[in-house]
Design brief:
714 residues, globular, two-stranded antiparallel ribbon, mainly alpha, single chain, 2% strand, 72% helix
């Protein structure tokens, strides 16, 4: 049945009969109409997205779950949108944005101050630049591109992947916000990184004797200048001084920071042709070669850097990277440690050791290395963000969260910290209402500061996935891949997104494209193996398992993923369990190895051993334990007729849920309610309703929660 050829009425009938692909095709057709209708009422983009998402939830519930009788689809949809808009503004006490004055009005307001009376318009713009940099990020960049860089609306739309109308609206709102800033009528939103609460502070300009604007009555961290503006300035300097190398180096650093490897490599080579003794440039060029898979060029680069190394520590550093490129990891670890001993106040050696250990899945070593860097400087941005993955694998959640918030509070424009914090908030359900807007701002700032980074883009896609907007996620990846067709990580993520929208054939093609681009990469093989096992593709699964075991025998995830694929897809449960056990033998201190080993045992019908493995993961966890994992142990104990053990674990869920409130209060209540329900407590329904009121859950969990409450009320 070709869904695209069916009418809306036929799609509606199929969806009400439980055919989900028909519903998604119908919603794709209705979504533009809903967007237009909401935009006529609301002008704030974030509010529009919230309302459209709520309309989608109601439409899906009415068609797929309740299966209401709908006589006229268009009029019914119009009524739903109107009611959702009314309820939204009534419940949230919001106001519709009204038109304000344009930029000329902002300049006119300045003239009331004595210092601005004799200034020309260009000088007035210079005066208000301090206010421009005080604008929120979602306004500041659009204002600068339009009013300072003089880009057209169409050019800005292409840069930001937005519609021209949306760009015009964003520039217009930036002008209005700027006018209110100058008059001192606007409130600045400031995030307190300690208690993660939002407060608003009123401020006004301060005048001093030189008739200029000196500062604002709010203490704010120094802001990094917008990269697009900085690039334009550097290029103009290079035109004036074609023989200079410092502007070229700064431009290369910007391209390096935003992941534009080819541009950065070419510019670094030009710098080295003028200044061959720049040690940092050699090291960054070596990293670019490693990131792009050119191992031979990386080794040669580090060898040339070793020749000019000014200190013993630098020489050891270069030798360590040569060892890494030659897959001599144990030797590299010792060389990094020796380099750190020779230069004790330089955290760079600990950084590199931490990243190498992280990439080799040596989580304990990675955390120790980053901890050494934090002993040198407790505000070390690289160590705060770089330790995330290892802390996540070790379930050290309290440290992970505190480091992420500290990193973002220290530098609100660091794309790595922004991306990791946005992903953390998405995983814990902070994607709705005010909390959702903060998460969206973090993800957008990550993309804005690293527009060519797959990881930054992934944080924005995670936001839409957590809200159930799977087609939006697919569209974002398609847009990214149009500009970066050789990015294997993006193809893998795109394949996963396609699978959520029931486009199985396209998903398989996208995953195969990822394999074609970087079939030797560990993470590509890992994802391809897991993906093929889920789809039941025995041939691809077998090939990926052989490649993983042959090329990456030192990585514990090689054995957990291969074991699961053997047990589930290739129907070899005994061999799968034996392979997966290698992971816990290699790293018994990592909770994730035990949990993944338990999944393999459970798939192989060795249920008692699976529960024992999960209990082992519980006991090796340090710090906060996720109630999800404790509840899983309790459920499996009950399924294996271990009633007393199951009840004990349910009480453990209640304890872990109370501790998890500081991370995600809704998620804590959600799992606590499930434990209470299994214990037979009457307070379970009340706890479910409290969780629904807070609403901080991912889309799928929120739907599950609503269904649970409806079933219990009946």
């Amino acid at each position: 049945m070709n869904l695209k050829q069916l009418s809306n009425v036929r799609l509606l009938q199929a969806a009400q009969n439980g055919h989900q692909p028909a519903y998604w095709e119908l919603w794709q057709r209705l979504a533009p109409q809903v967007q237009r209708q909401v935009s006529c009422t609301v002008q704030n983009r974030d509010d529009i997205e919230d309302i459209v998402q709520e309309v989608q939830n109601k439409v899906r519930d009415s068609i797929l779950v309740r299966r209401h009788t709908i006589r006229t689809l268009q009029s019914w949809l119009h009524t739903v949108v109107k009611n959702v808009c009314n309820d939204y503004f009534k419940d949230k006490n919001r106001e519709i944005v009204l038109p304000l004055y344009q930029l000329e009005a902002c300049i006119a307001e300045l003239k009331q101050y004595e210092q601005a009376q004799l200034l020309e318009k260009s000088q007035n713009l210079d005066e208000i630049m301090q206010y421009v940099h005080s604008l929120p990020g979602r306004f500041r960049s659009f204002f600068i591109m339009r009013k300072i860089e003089k880009l057209s609306y169409d050019e800005i739309a292409r840069i930001t992947s937005m519609s021209t109308h949306a760009v015009e609206q964003r520039v217009y709102l930036a002008e209005c916000r700027l006018r209110r800033l100058i008059k001192g009528e606007c409130r600045l939103w400031v995030e307190d990184s300690l208690n993660r609460q939002i407060t608003h502070v009123r401020f006004a300009p301060v005048l001093i004797k030189n008739q200029g604007i000196h500062s604002l009555r709010v203490h704010m961290a120094d802001r990094v200048p917008l990269r697009s503006v900085r690039v334009s300035t550097i290029q103009s300097q290079m035109e004036k001084h074609p023989g200079g190398w410092r502007p070229l180096l700064e431009l290369a650093d910007i391209h390096f920071a935003t992941g534009q490897w080819e541009s950065a490599a070419g510019e670094y080579k030009q710098v080295l042709s003028i200044q061959p003794n720049q040690m940092t440039v050699w090291l960054r060029l070596g990293r670019i070669y490693r990131e792009t898979g050119n191992t031979e060029a990386a080794v040669e680069t580090y060898r040339q850097a070793r020749v000019i190394a000014p200190t013993t520590a630098c020489r050891l550093h270069c030798e360590a990277w040569i060892a890494v490129c030659n897959d001599r990891i144990a030797c590299a670890v010792e060389l990094f440690k020796r380099a750190a001993q020779h230069d004790k106040n330089n955290p760079a050696y600990w950084h590199d050791l931490g990243f190498i250990a992280r990439d080799q899945q040596l989580d304990m070593l990675s955390v120790e290395a980053f901890d050494h860097a934090l002993e040198i400087d407790r505000n070390d941005m690289v160590a705060l963000a770089g330790s995330h993955d290892a802390l996540h694998n070790l379930d050290r959640n309290a440290e992970l969260i505190s480091r992420l918030y500290r990193a973002v509070s220290l530098n609100e424009n660091d794309p790595t910290a922004l991306k990791l914090l946005a992903v953390h908030r998405c995983e814990n359900g902070f994607v709705w209402n005010t909390e959702g807007k903060k998460t969206l701002q973090l993800a957008r700032r990550a993309v804005q500061n690293a527009p060519h980074s797959t990881e930054a883009y992934e944080s924005l896609c995670n936001y839409y996935y957590s809200r159930g907007r799977y087609y939006k996620e697919v569209g974002l990846w398609e847009s990214f891949l149009n500009d970066h067709p050789a990015d294997s990580r993006a193809w893998r993520k795109y394949a996963r997104a396609l699978l959520k929208t029931a486009r199985v054939v396209d998903a398989n093609q996208a995953m195969q494209r990822s394999l074609d681009i970087a079939g030797d990469n560990f993470f590509v093989l890992l994802d391809a193996c897991d993906f093929a096992a889920e789809q039941g593709d025995a041939v691809t699964t077998q090939t990926c398992i052989q490649n993983l075991l042959h090329r990456y025998p030192d990585f514990w995830q090689t054995y957990t993923i291969s074991g699961y694929a053997l047990a589930v897809c290739l129907h070899q449960p005994a061999q799968g369990c034996n392979v997966a056990r290698r992971a816990v033998e290699m790293h018994p201190e990592v909770p994730r190895t035990w949990r993944q080993y338990a999944e393999v045992l459970w798939a192989a019908e060795r249920k008692t051993e699976a529960v024992a493995a999960q209990e082992k993961a519980f006991h090796v966890t340090q710090g906060l334990r996720h109630p999800r994992y404790t509840l899983d142990i309790a459920k499996r104990c009950l399924l294996t007729n271990q009633q007393n053990e199951g009840r004990n674990w349910l009480h453990a869920v209640l304890e872990d849920a109370d501790q998890w409130r500081c991370v995600s209060p809704t998620m804590a209540l959600f799992f606590k309610a499930q434990a209470l329900e299994l214990l037979g407590c009457t307070s379970a329904l009340q706890t479910y309703e409290e969780a629904l009121q807070l609403g901080l859950l991912q889309h799928d969990e929120l739907i599950c929660l609503r269904k649970k409450i409806q079933a219990m009320r009946k």
